Amino acid sequence: MKLNSIRFKASILYTSILCIILVLFSGVLFSITRHILYRDVDEELQIKAAEIVNILKSYEKLKQTESRHQHLINKLLGVEDRARLIIDDLWRSDMQALNLKSDYINILNVRGQPIIKSQNFNEEITALFRNKFPLSLNYAVFKNLKNSKYRLRAINMPFSFGNQHLLVIQIGTPLDSVIRILNKLMYFIGAGILFILGLTSFLGSFFARRILKPVLNVTNIVDDISHTDLNLRIPEMEVDEEMKHLISSCNAMIERLEKSFEHVNEFSSHVAHELKTPLAIIRGEVELALSETRDVDEYQRVLNVSLEEIDRLIRIIKDLLLLARLDYNPDVFQFENINLKAFLEEIHEYSSILAEQKGLASELKIPESAHYIDGDKIHLRRLFLNLINNAVKFTPTGGKISITLAIKENRAEIVVSDTGAGIFREDLEAIFDKFFRSHSHGHKAEPGSGLGLSIARSIARAHKGQITVQSRPGQGSAFTVSLPVA
Ligand SMILES: Nc1ncnc2c1ncn2[C@@H]1O[C@H](COP(=O)(O)OP(=O)(O)O)[C@@H](O)[C@H]1O
Ligand SMILES: [Mg+2]
Protein backbone atom coordinates (compact mmCIF):
# COMPACT_ATOMS: atom_id res chain seq x y z
CA MET A 1 0.00 0.00 0.00
CA LYS A 2 1.57 3.29 -1.09
CA LEU A 3 1.79 6.14 1.42
CA ASN A 4 0.11 8.66 -0.86
CA SER A 5 -2.68 6.33 -1.97
CA ILE A 6 -6.30 7.14 -1.17
CA ARG A 7 -6.57 3.74 0.49
CA PHE A 8 -3.77 4.49 2.93
CA LYS A 9 -4.96 8.02 3.65
CA ALA A 10 -8.55 6.89 4.19
CA SER A 11 -7.43 4.11 6.56
CA ILE A 12 -5.21 6.50 8.52
CA LEU A 13 -7.97 9.09 8.67
CA TYR A 14 -10.70 6.94 10.10
CA THR A 15 -8.34 4.98 12.33
CA SER A 16 -7.14 8.21 13.91
CA ILE A 17 -10.67 9.56 14.29
CA LEU A 18 -11.72 6.31 15.90
CA CYS A 19 -8.62 6.40 18.11
CA ILE A 20 -9.45 9.90 19.37
CA ILE A 21 -13.06 8.90 20.07
CA LEU A 22 -12.00 5.73 21.89
CA VAL A 23 -9.41 7.54 24.00
CA LEU A 24 -11.89 10.26 24.98
CA PHE A 25 -14.57 7.72 25.75
CA SER A 26 -12.20 5.55 27.79
CA GLY A 27 -10.93 8.60 29.67
CA VAL A 28 -14.47 9.50 30.66
CA LEU A 29 -15.26 5.88 31.56
CA PHE A 30 -12.11 5.64 33.65
CA SER A 31 -12.71 8.81 35.61
CA ILE A 32 -16.37 7.94 36.27
CA THR A 33 -15.32 4.52 37.59
CA ARG A 34 -12.62 6.09 39.72
CA HIS A 35 -15.06 8.62 41.08
CA ILE A 36 -17.59 5.90 41.98
CA LEU A 37 -14.94 3.73 43.69
CA TYR A 38 -13.62 6.65 45.73
CA ARG A 39 -17.13 7.69 46.69
CA ASP A 40 -17.79 4.16 47.99
CA VAL A 41 -14.55 4.23 50.00
CA ASP A 42 -15.45 7.65 51.39
CA GLU A 43 -18.94 6.51 52.38
CA GLU A 44 -17.47 3.52 54.14
CA LEU A 45 -14.94 5.71 55.96
CA GLN A 46 -17.70 8.03 57.10
CA ILE A 47 -19.80 5.14 58.39
CA LYS A 48 -16.81 3.69 60.27
CA ALA A 49 -16.00 7.06 61.83
CA ALA A 50 -19.63 7.55 62.87
CA GLU A 51 -19.80 4.09 64.40
CA ILE A 52 -16.60 4.57 66.37
CA VAL A 53 -17.88 7.93 67.62
CA ASN A 54 -21.14 6.22 68.60
CA ILE A 55 -19.28 3.56 70.55
CA LEU A 56 -17.29 6.21 72.36
CA LYS A 57 -20.38 8.21 73.17
CA SER A 58 -22.12 5.11 74.54
CA TYR A 59 -19.39 5.00 77.25
CA GLU A 60 -20.47 8.43 78.44
CA LYS A 61 -23.66 6.89 79.75
CA LEU A 62 -21.90 4.17 81.70
CA LYS A 63 -21.82 4.68 85.39
CA GLN A 64 -18.91 6.63 86.66
CA THR A 65 -18.29 3.93 89.23
CA GLU A 66 -17.31 1.35 86.74
CA SER A 67 -13.71 2.21 87.02
CA ARG A 68 -12.56 0.33 83.99
CA HIS A 69 -14.49 2.66 81.84
CA GLN A 70 -13.83 5.62 84.01
CA HIS A 71 -10.23 5.36 83.02
CA LEU A 72 -11.17 5.55 79.37
CA ILE A 73 -13.61 8.39 79.85
CA ASN A 74 -11.08 10.34 81.83
CA LYS A 75 -8.68 9.85 79.11
CA LEU A 76 -11.17 11.04 76.48
CA LEU A 77 -12.04 14.08 78.56
CA GLY A 78 -8.38 14.90 78.81
CA VAL A 79 -8.15 14.29 82.50
CA GLU A 80 -5.31 11.89 81.81
CA ASP A 81 -3.43 13.46 79.03
CA ARG A 82 -0.70 10.86 78.57
CA ALA A 83 -1.33 9.30 75.22
CA ARG A 84 -1.15 5.58 74.99
CA LEU A 85 -2.90 2.66 73.45
CA ILE A 86 -6.13 1.74 75.07
CA ILE A 87 -6.08 -1.77 76.47
CA ASP A 88 -9.60 -1.95 77.48
CA ASP A 89 -11.60 -5.13 77.05
CA LEU A 90 -14.84 -3.41 76.25
CA TRP A 91 -13.25 -1.07 73.74
CA ARG A 92 -11.32 -3.91 72.17
CA SER A 93 -14.36 -6.15 71.75
CA ASP A 94 -16.42 -3.29 70.40
CA MET A 95 -13.73 -2.47 67.92
CA GLN A 96 -13.28 -6.09 66.87
CA ALA A 97 -16.97 -6.21 66.03
CA LEU A 98 -16.37 -3.39 63.55
CA ASN A 99 -13.71 -5.39 61.72
CA LEU A 100 -11.23 -2.60 61.13
CA LYS A 101 -8.13 -4.76 60.85
CA SER A 102 -6.50 -3.04 57.92
CA ASP A 103 -7.56 0.50 58.87
CA TYR A 104 -5.45 3.10 60.67
CA ILE A 105 -7.37 4.81 63.44
CA ASN A 106 -6.39 7.76 65.57
CA ILE A 107 -8.37 9.95 67.95
CA LEU A 108 -6.83 13.28 68.89
CA ASN A 109 -7.70 16.15 71.11
CA VAL A 110 -7.93 19.67 69.75
CA ARG A 111 -4.29 20.29 70.51
CA GLY A 112 -3.36 17.45 68.21
CA GLN A 113 -2.29 15.08 70.94
CA PRO A 114 -3.24 11.47 70.25
CA ILE A 115 -5.60 9.97 72.80
CA ILE A 116 -6.46 6.59 71.37
CA LYS A 117 -4.84 5.03 68.33
CA SER A 118 -4.68 1.68 66.63
CA GLN A 119 -1.51 -0.35 66.94
CA ASN A 120 -0.63 -0.01 63.26
CA PHE A 121 -0.71 3.82 63.51
CA ASN A 122 3.10 4.21 63.41
CA GLU A 123 5.32 7.27 63.06
CA GLU A 124 5.24 7.30 59.30
CA ILE A 125 1.45 7.22 59.20
CA THR A 126 1.30 9.93 61.85
CA ALA A 127 3.48 12.13 59.70
CA LEU A 128 1.30 11.46 56.62
CA PHE A 129 -1.84 12.50 58.51
CA ARG A 130 -0.20 15.55 60.08
CA ASN A 131 0.87 16.87 56.67
CA LYS A 132 -2.57 16.61 55.13
CA PHE A 133 -4.86 17.56 57.98
CA PRO A 134 -3.90 20.76 59.80
CA LEU A 135 -5.54 21.07 63.22
CA SER A 136 -7.66 24.04 62.30
CA LEU A 137 -10.00 21.82 60.28
CA ASN A 138 -13.34 21.61 62.03
CA TYR A 139 -15.39 19.74 59.44
CA ALA A 140 -15.17 16.29 57.80
CA VAL A 141 -12.56 16.12 55.06
CA PHE A 142 -11.47 13.26 52.79
CA LYS A 143 -7.98 13.15 51.34
CA ASN A 144 -5.53 10.81 49.66
CA LEU A 145 -2.39 10.14 51.65
CA LYS A 146 0.55 8.82 49.79
CA ASN A 147 4.21 8.04 50.18
CA SER A 148 6.46 5.36 48.74
CA LYS A 149 5.05 2.72 51.08
CA TYR A 150 1.43 3.64 51.71
CA ARG A 151 -1.51 4.78 49.62
CA LEU A 152 -4.46 5.59 51.82
CA ARG A 153 -7.79 7.28 51.62
CA ALA A 154 -8.37 9.10 54.87
CA ILE A 155 -11.11 10.93 56.72
CA ASN A 156 -10.56 13.64 59.34
CA MET A 157 -13.78 14.22 61.28
CA PRO A 158 -14.23 16.39 64.40
CA PHE A 159 -16.84 15.36 66.97
CA SER A 160 -17.86 16.49 70.44
CA PHE A 161 -17.52 14.33 73.49
CA GLY A 162 -18.71 15.10 77.01
CA ASN A 163 -19.40 18.71 77.71
CA GLN A 164 -18.30 20.51 74.59
CA HIS A 165 -15.10 18.54 74.47
CA LEU A 166 -13.98 18.62 70.83
CA LEU A 167 -12.10 15.60 69.60
CA VAL A 168 -11.01 14.56 66.14
CA ILE A 169 -11.19 11.09 64.66
CA GLN A 170 -8.90 10.17 61.79
CA ILE A 171 -9.26 6.93 59.85
CA GLY A 172 -7.11 5.84 56.92
CA THR A 173 -7.95 2.87 54.76
CA PRO A 174 -5.56 1.33 52.21
CA LEU A 175 -6.52 1.96 48.60
CA ASP A 176 -4.97 -1.32 47.38
CA SER A 177 -8.18 -2.86 46.11
CA VAL A 178 -9.34 0.32 44.43
CA ILE A 179 -5.96 0.73 42.73
CA ARG A 180 -6.05 -2.89 41.67
CA ILE A 181 -9.45 -2.45 40.07
CA LEU A 182 -8.40 0.79 38.33
CA ASN A 183 -5.19 -0.79 37.03
CA LYS A 184 -7.11 -3.73 35.66
CA LEU A 185 -9.57 -1.37 34.04
CA MET A 186 -6.73 0.58 32.46
CA TYR A 187 -5.10 -2.56 31.04
CA PHE A 188 -8.43 -3.71 29.73
CA ILE A 189 -9.16 -0.36 28.09
CA GLY A 190 -5.66 -0.14 26.57
CA ALA A 191 -5.82 -3.64 25.16
CA GLY A 192 -9.37 -3.00 23.94
CA ILE A 193 -8.36 0.18 22.11
CA LEU A 194 -5.40 -1.54 20.46
CA PHE A 195 -7.55 -4.48 19.40
CA ILE A 196 -10.34 -2.28 18.02
CA LEU A 197 -7.88 -0.05 16.14
CA GLY A 198 -6.07 -3.04 14.67
CA LEU A 199 -9.32 -4.62 13.59
CA THR A 200 -10.77 -1.45 12.08
CA SER A 201 -7.62 -0.55 10.21
CA PHE A 202 -7.55 -4.05 8.76
CA LEU A 203 -11.25 -3.99 7.87
CA GLY A 204 -10.99 -0.40 6.67
CA SER A 205 -8.15 -1.16 4.33
CA PHE A 206 -10.02 -4.23 3.12
CA PHE A 207 -13.18 -2.27 2.34
CA ALA A 208 -11.23 0.65 0.86
CA ARG A 209 -9.62 -1.82 -1.51
CA ARG A 210 -13.05 -3.16 -2.46
CA ILE A 211 -14.45 0.33 -2.97
CA LEU A 212 -11.47 1.45 -5.04
CA LYS A 213 -11.33 -1.70 -7.15
CA PRO A 214 -13.54 -0.23 -9.90
CA VAL A 215 -11.12 2.71 -10.15
CA LEU A 216 -8.32 0.27 -10.93
CA ASN A 217 -10.52 -1.49 -13.47
CA VAL A 218 -11.37 1.78 -15.18
CA THR A 219 -7.71 2.80 -15.16
CA ASN A 220 -6.71 -0.47 -16.81
CA ILE A 221 -9.34 -0.09 -19.51
CA VAL A 222 -8.42 3.56 -20.17
CA ASP A 223 -4.75 2.56 -20.32
CA ASP A 224 -5.58 0.17 -23.13
CA ILE A 225 -7.39 2.74 -25.28
CA SER A 226 -5.16 4.24 -27.93
CA HIS A 227 -6.01 6.47 -30.90
CA THR A 228 -6.72 3.42 -33.03
CA ASP A 229 -9.50 2.10 -30.81
CA LEU A 230 -11.29 5.24 -29.75
CA ASN A 231 -14.52 3.39 -30.47
CA LEU A 232 -13.94 1.38 -27.27
CA ARG A 233 -16.03 2.43 -24.26
CA ILE A 234 -15.71 1.55 -20.58
CA PRO A 235 -18.46 -1.00 -19.89
CA GLU A 236 -21.21 0.09 -17.48
CA MET A 237 -20.40 -1.98 -14.40
CA GLU A 238 -22.35 -2.71 -11.25
CA VAL A 239 -20.70 0.11 -9.32
CA ASP A 240 -21.49 3.00 -7.01
CA GLU A 241 -23.08 6.23 -8.17
CA GLU A 242 -19.80 8.21 -8.13
CA MET A 243 -18.01 5.57 -10.16
CA LYS A 244 -20.87 5.48 -12.65
CA HIS A 245 -20.39 9.20 -13.01
CA LEU A 246 -16.66 8.81 -13.55
CA ILE A 247 -17.23 6.08 -16.13
CA SER A 248 -19.78 8.11 -18.04
CA SER A 249 -17.51 11.18 -17.94
CA CYS A 250 -14.62 9.11 -19.25
CA ASN A 251 -16.83 7.67 -21.98
CA ALA A 252 -18.02 11.14 -22.94
CA MET A 253 -14.40 12.30 -23.11
CA ILE A 254 -13.42 9.37 -25.31
CA GLU A 255 -16.37 10.16 -27.54
CA ARG A 256 -15.25 13.78 -27.88
CA LEU A 257 -11.74 12.59 -28.66
CA GLU A 258 -13.11 10.18 -31.25
CA LYS A 259 -15.12 12.98 -32.88
CA SER A 260 -12.19 15.37 -32.98
CA PHE A 261 -9.97 12.62 -34.38
CA GLU A 262 -12.54 11.99 -37.07
CA HIS A 263 -12.69 15.70 -37.70
CA VAL A 264 -8.92 15.99 -38.01
CA ASN A 265 -8.85 12.98 -40.35
CA GLU A 266 -11.60 14.42 -42.50
CA PHE A 267 -9.93 17.80 -42.51
CA SER A 268 -6.57 16.37 -43.59
CA SER A 269 -8.14 14.40 -46.41
CA HIS A 270 -9.98 17.56 -47.49
CA VAL A 271 -6.73 19.51 -47.43
CA ALA A 272 -4.96 16.75 -49.37
CA HIS A 273 -7.77 16.68 -51.90
CA GLU A 274 -7.86 20.46 -52.32
CA LEU A 275 -4.11 20.57 -52.80
CA LYS A 276 -4.08 17.56 -55.10
CA THR A 277 -6.50 18.97 -57.67
CA PRO A 278 -4.41 21.99 -58.75
CA LEU A 279 -1.27 19.85 -58.68
CA ALA A 280 -2.95 17.21 -60.87
CA ILE A 281 -3.99 19.91 -63.36
CA ILE A 282 -0.46 21.34 -63.48
CA ARG A 283 1.00 17.88 -63.89
CA GLY A 284 -1.44 16.98 -66.70
CA GLU A 285 -0.79 20.18 -68.59
CA VAL A 286 2.99 19.95 -68.25
CA GLU A 287 3.00 16.26 -69.22
CA LEU A 288 0.91 17.01 -72.29
CA ALA A 289 3.16 19.90 -73.27
CA LEU A 290 6.25 17.74 -72.94
CA SER A 291 4.84 14.75 -74.87
CA GLU A 292 5.74 16.40 -78.18
CA THR A 293 7.21 19.64 -79.49
CA ARG A 294 4.71 22.53 -79.23
CA ASP A 295 4.64 26.06 -80.45
CA VAL A 296 5.35 29.01 -78.17
CA ASP A 297 1.63 29.88 -77.72
CA GLU A 298 0.89 26.43 -76.41
CA TYR A 299 3.80 26.62 -73.93
CA GLN A 300 2.57 30.00 -72.80
CA ARG A 301 -0.93 28.66 -72.27
CA VAL A 302 0.38 25.77 -70.22
CA LEU A 303 2.53 28.10 -68.15
CA ASN A 304 -0.43 30.45 -67.57
CA VAL A 305 -2.68 27.60 -66.47
CA SER A 306 0.07 26.39 -64.14
CA LEU A 307 0.53 29.84 -62.71
CA GLU A 308 -3.21 30.12 -62.01
CA GLU A 309 -3.26 26.76 -60.28
CA ILE A 310 -0.15 27.64 -58.28
CA ASP A 311 -1.85 30.86 -57.17
CA ARG A 312 -4.85 28.81 -56.11
CA LEU A 313 -2.57 26.52 -54.13
CA ILE A 314 -0.91 29.49 -52.46
CA ARG A 315 -4.31 30.99 -51.62
CA ILE A 316 -5.55 27.77 -50.02
CA ILE A 317 -2.37 27.38 -48.02
CA LYS A 318 -2.51 31.01 -46.88
CA ASP A 319 -6.14 30.63 -45.83
CA LEU A 320 -5.34 27.46 -43.91
CA LEU A 321 -2.45 29.14 -42.17
CA LEU A 322 -4.66 32.09 -41.33
CA LEU A 323 -7.36 29.81 -39.92
CA ALA A 324 -4.82 28.00 -37.78
CA ARG A 325 -3.55 31.32 -36.48
CA LEU A 326 -7.02 32.69 -35.80
CA ASP A 327 -8.15 29.59 -33.97
CA TYR A 328 -5.11 29.03 -31.80
CA ASN A 329 -3.46 32.38 -31.36
CA PRO A 330 -5.62 35.26 -30.18
CA ASP A 331 -2.52 37.49 -30.14
CA VAL A 332 -2.78 38.05 -33.88
CA PHE A 333 -5.62 40.49 -33.14
CA GLN A 334 -4.86 44.12 -32.49
CA PHE A 335 -7.95 45.71 -31.05
CA GLU A 336 -8.81 49.36 -31.48
CA ASN A 337 -11.88 51.55 -31.23
CA ILE A 338 -13.68 51.47 -34.59
CA ASN A 339 -16.30 53.94 -35.82
CA LEU A 340 -18.85 51.63 -37.44
CA LYS A 341 -20.19 54.28 -39.82
CA ALA A 342 -16.80 55.04 -41.36
CA PHE A 343 -15.84 51.39 -41.39
CA LEU A 344 -19.03 50.21 -43.15
CA GLU A 345 -18.81 53.03 -45.69
CA GLU A 346 -15.36 51.79 -46.64
CA ILE A 347 -16.69 48.23 -46.97
CA HIS A 348 -19.58 49.49 -49.05
CA GLU A 349 -17.20 51.25 -51.40
CA TYR A 350 -15.45 47.97 -52.11
CA SER A 351 -18.80 46.22 -52.41
CA SER A 352 -20.12 48.66 -55.01
CA ILE A 353 -17.01 48.26 -57.18
CA LEU A 354 -17.40 44.46 -57.17
CA ALA A 355 -21.16 44.69 -57.66
CA GLU A 356 -20.86 47.08 -60.55
CA GLN A 357 -18.45 44.74 -62.34
CA LYS A 358 -21.16 42.04 -62.28
CA GLY A 359 -24.06 44.36 -62.96
CA LEU A 360 -25.50 44.29 -59.42
CA ALA A 361 -26.85 47.08 -57.27
CA SER A 362 -25.28 47.74 -53.87
CA GLU A 363 -26.78 49.69 -51.00
CA LEU A 364 -25.79 50.72 -47.43
CA LYS A 365 -28.33 51.39 -44.66
CA ILE A 366 -26.92 52.68 -41.38
CA PRO A 367 -28.45 54.78 -38.59
CA GLU A 368 -27.43 58.42 -38.22
CA SER A 369 -26.11 58.05 -34.68
CA ALA A 370 -22.45 57.13 -34.13
CA HIS A 371 -21.60 53.69 -32.85
CA TYR A 372 -18.28 52.17 -31.93
CA ILE A 373 -16.95 48.69 -31.47
CA ASP A 374 -13.64 47.31 -30.21
CA GLY A 375 -12.10 45.28 -32.97
CA ASP A 376 -9.22 44.47 -35.24
CA LYS A 377 -9.87 46.47 -38.42
CA ILE A 378 -7.82 44.32 -40.77
CA HIS A 379 -9.48 41.08 -39.70
CA LEU A 380 -12.99 42.57 -39.58
CA ARG A 381 -12.48 43.89 -43.10
CA ARG A 382 -11.51 40.40 -44.17
CA LEU A 383 -14.66 39.02 -42.54
CA PHE A 384 -17.00 41.40 -44.39
CA LEU A 385 -15.14 41.13 -47.70
CA ASN A 386 -15.57 37.35 -47.53
CA LEU A 387 -19.33 37.82 -47.05
CA ILE A 388 -19.51 40.39 -49.87
CA ASN A 389 -17.42 38.23 -52.21
CA ASN A 390 -19.85 35.36 -51.61
CA ALA A 391 -22.88 37.61 -52.11
CA VAL A 392 -21.50 38.86 -55.41
CA LYS A 393 -20.41 35.37 -56.47
CA PHE A 394 -23.76 33.71 -55.81
CA THR A 395 -26.03 36.51 -57.12
CA PRO A 396 -26.82 36.64 -60.82
CA THR A 397 -26.67 39.88 -62.81
CA GLY A 398 -29.52 42.30 -61.99
CA GLY A 399 -29.58 41.39 -58.31
CA LYS A 400 -28.86 43.54 -55.31
CA ILE A 401 -26.47 43.45 -52.36
CA SER A 402 -27.26 45.35 -49.16
CA ILE A 403 -25.28 46.13 -46.04
CA THR A 404 -27.37 47.26 -43.04
CA LEU A 405 -26.53 48.12 -39.46
CA ALA A 406 -28.92 47.90 -36.51
CA ILE A 407 -28.11 48.30 -32.79
CA LYS A 408 -29.91 45.82 -30.51
CA GLU A 409 -29.23 45.66 -26.77
CA ASN A 410 -25.55 46.59 -26.78
CA ARG A 411 -24.90 44.59 -29.91
CA ALA A 412 -24.23 45.83 -33.38
CA GLU A 413 -25.95 43.66 -35.98
CA ILE A 414 -24.48 44.04 -39.44
CA VAL A 415 -26.40 42.19 -42.14
CA VAL A 416 -24.93 41.43 -45.55
CA SER A 417 -27.78 40.26 -47.76
CA ASP A 418 -28.23 39.42 -51.40
CA THR A 419 -30.98 38.45 -53.80
CA GLY A 420 -29.00 35.51 -55.18
CA ALA A 421 -29.15 31.75 -55.34
CA GLY A 422 -29.76 31.13 -51.63
CA ILE A 423 -28.71 28.07 -49.66
CA PHE A 424 -30.55 24.80 -49.12
CA ARG A 425 -31.82 24.34 -45.60
CA GLU A 426 -29.75 21.18 -45.12
CA ASP A 427 -26.58 23.11 -46.01
CA LEU A 428 -27.18 26.05 -43.67
CA GLU A 429 -25.00 24.81 -40.81
CA ALA A 430 -22.42 23.11 -43.00
CA ILE A 431 -21.46 26.21 -44.98
CA PHE A 432 -19.32 27.38 -42.05
CA ASP A 433 -17.29 24.14 -42.09
CA LYS A 434 -13.87 24.16 -43.64
CA PHE A 435 -13.85 23.22 -47.33
CA PHE A 436 -17.64 22.95 -47.47
CA ARG A 437 -19.12 24.09 -50.76
CA SER A 438 -22.78 23.59 -51.55
CA HIS A 439 -23.82 21.48 -54.52
CA SER A 440 -26.93 23.55 -55.13
CA HIS A 441 -27.49 25.88 -58.07
CA GLY A 442 -24.20 25.03 -59.66
CA HIS A 443 -22.28 26.63 -56.76
CA LYS A 444 -19.39 24.34 -57.48
CA ALA A 445 -18.93 26.08 -60.80
CA GLU A 446 -17.89 29.22 -58.90
CA PRO A 447 -14.25 29.43 -57.89
CA GLY A 448 -13.48 29.09 -54.22
CA SER A 449 -11.90 26.88 -51.61
CA GLY A 450 -14.74 26.66 -49.07
CA LEU A 451 -12.63 28.35 -46.41
CA GLY A 452 -14.09 31.88 -46.55
CA LEU A 453 -16.97 31.40 -44.08
CA SER A 454 -14.79 29.38 -41.67
CA ILE A 455 -12.39 32.30 -41.54
CA ALA A 456 -15.30 34.74 -41.10
CA ARG A 457 -16.72 32.75 -38.18
CA SER A 458 -13.31 32.49 -36.46
CA ILE A 459 -12.83 36.25 -36.72
CA ALA A 460 -16.34 36.93 -35.37
CA ARG A 461 -15.75 34.59 -32.42
CA ALA A 462 -12.46 36.28 -31.61
CA HIS A 463 -14.49 39.50 -31.29
CA LYS A 464 -16.98 37.80 -28.91
CA GLY A 465 -19.46 37.85 -31.72
CA GLN A 466 -21.22 35.38 -33.99
CA ILE A 467 -22.41 34.90 -37.54
CA THR A 468 -25.81 33.51 -38.42
CA VAL A 469 -27.44 32.94 -41.77
CA GLN A 470 -30.97 33.05 -43.10
CA SER A 471 -31.64 32.00 -46.62
CA ARG A 472 -34.28 30.91 -49.06
CA PRO A 473 -33.17 28.97 -52.11
CA GLY A 474 -33.79 31.03 -55.22
CA GLN A 475 -34.54 34.23 -53.29
CA GLY A 476 -31.35 35.20 -51.53
CA SER A 477 -29.36 34.94 -48.32
CA ALA A 478 -28.70 37.23 -45.34
CA PHE A 479 -25.61 36.82 -43.16
CA THR A 480 -25.89 38.57 -39.79
CA VAL A 481 -22.71 39.45 -37.90
CA SER A 482 -23.44 40.39 -34.31
CA LEU A 483 -20.69 42.16 -32.34
CA PRO A 484 -20.69 43.76 -28.89
CA VAL A 485 -20.64 47.56 -29.04
CA ALA A 486 -17.90 49.38 -27.16
N1 LIG B 1 -24.31 34.55 -50.25
C1 LIG B 1 -24.40 33.24 -50.51
N2 LIG B 1 -25.41 32.76 -51.29
C2 LIG B 1 -25.49 31.44 -51.52
N3 LIG B 1 -24.62 30.50 -51.06
C3 LIG B 1 -23.61 30.94 -50.30
C4 LIG B 1 -23.44 32.31 -49.99
N4 LIG B 1 -22.35 32.43 -49.19
C5 LIG B 1 -21.85 31.17 -49.04
N5 LIG B 1 -22.60 30.26 -49.69
C6 LIG B 1 -22.39 28.82 -49.73
O1 LIG B 1 -21.49 28.46 -48.72
C7 LIG B 1 -20.35 27.80 -49.29
C8 LIG B 1 -19.13 28.13 -48.47
O2 LIG B 1 -18.74 29.48 -48.63
P1 LIG B 1 -17.28 29.90 -48.44
O3 LIG B 1 -16.82 29.30 -47.14
O4 LIG B 1 -17.15 31.35 -48.57
O5 LIG B 1 -16.49 29.13 -49.55
P2 LIG B 1 -16.36 29.50 -51.09
O6 LIG B 1 -16.82 30.89 -51.24
O7 LIG B 1 -14.90 29.34 -51.34
O8 LIG B 1 -17.17 28.50 -51.79
C9 LIG B 1 -20.30 28.30 -50.69
O9 LIG B 1 -19.63 27.38 -51.51
C10 LIG B 1 -21.77 28.39 -51.03
O10 LIG B 1 -22.26 27.11 -51.36
MG1 LIG C 1 -16.27 32.56 -50.17
CATH architecture of the largest domain: 2-Layer Sandwich
CATH superfamily of the largest domain: PAS domain
| Gap from first CA to last CA | 59 Å
How many beta-strand elements?
A: 12
Structural class per helix/strand content?
alpha+beta
Q: Into which percent range does the helicity of residues fall? A: 40-55%
* Strand residue content: 15-25%
Distinctive features:
binds adenosine-5'-diphosphate, rod-shaped, 10 helices, 486 residues, 5-stranded mixed β-sheet, 3 domains, single chain, 5-stranded antiparallel β-sheet, binds magnesium ion, Heat Shock Protein 90, alpha+beta, Beta-Lactamase, Helix Hairpins
How would the blueprint of this fold be written?
Elements: H1 6-60, H2 67-77, H3 89-98, E1 104-109, E2 114-117, H4 123-132, E3 141-146, E4 151-161, E5 165-174, H5 176-224, H6 241-291, H7 296-328, E6 336-339, H8 340-358, E7 361-365, E8 372-375, H9 377-393, E9 400-408, E10 411-418, H10 452-462, E11 466-472, E12 476-484
Parallel strand pairs: 7-9
Antiparallel strand pairs: 1-2, 1-5, 3-4, 4-5, 6-8, 9-10, 10-12, 11-12
Helix pairs in contact: 1-3, 1-5, 6-7, 7-10, 8-9, 9-10
Bound molecules: adenosine-5'-diphosphate (ADP) and magnesium ion (MG).
